[in-house]
Amino acid sequence: MSRPSAPWDRRGAVGVGVGRNGTLYVADTINNRIAAIPNAIFRMHGAGTGVTVSKGSALKGPLGLVIAPNGDILTVNSLNGNLVETTPHGAQIAVKKLDTSGSPPGAGGCSAWRSRRAAVASTS
After folding, report:
1. What CA–CA distance (Å, rounded) separates 28 from 36?
2. Distance between alpha carbon 107 and the CA centroid of its chain, in Å?
3. Cα distances (angstroms) measured from residue 36 to each of 8, 40, 52, 67, 111
């Protein structure tokens, strides 16, 4: 039995987060986008690959994803180590270099992201 494709199927996306309104946000690494599945926690039926919230520009292989306390979406890029802040409406409003290690430079940012996320989680 086959099932519908989702943004994280066969694409290696790892980062997911749920917004206050029940929207599931997914870091779609291969397509350089953040996908959203509205009302995900209330759905009784599939939503396909979701809708694109933001694509390209500062997103370079987004991998890690978390929802900030203000509702913005924070992603870390697997290709350059940048942390990108995106509003739920898709505006990329801030970019911060986390790490320059790895190959290509910044690819080590994913390990820095995991360390920072673990530190934040342990203080919550």
Report:
1. 10
2. 16
3. 12, 9, 6, 12, 25
> Is the whole model's pTM more than 0.70, yes or no?
yes
- Measured in whole angstroms, how far is the alpha carbon of residue 73 from the centre of its chain? 7
Report the first-to-last Cα separation within the chain, whole angstroms. Answer: 41
* Domain range annotation of the chain: 16-123
pLDDT exceeds 80 at position 63: yes
30-58 pLDDT, tens digit each: 889 999 999 888 888 877 788 999 998 99
Count of residues making up the chain? 124
Structural fold of domain 16-123: Thrombin, subunit H (2.40.10)
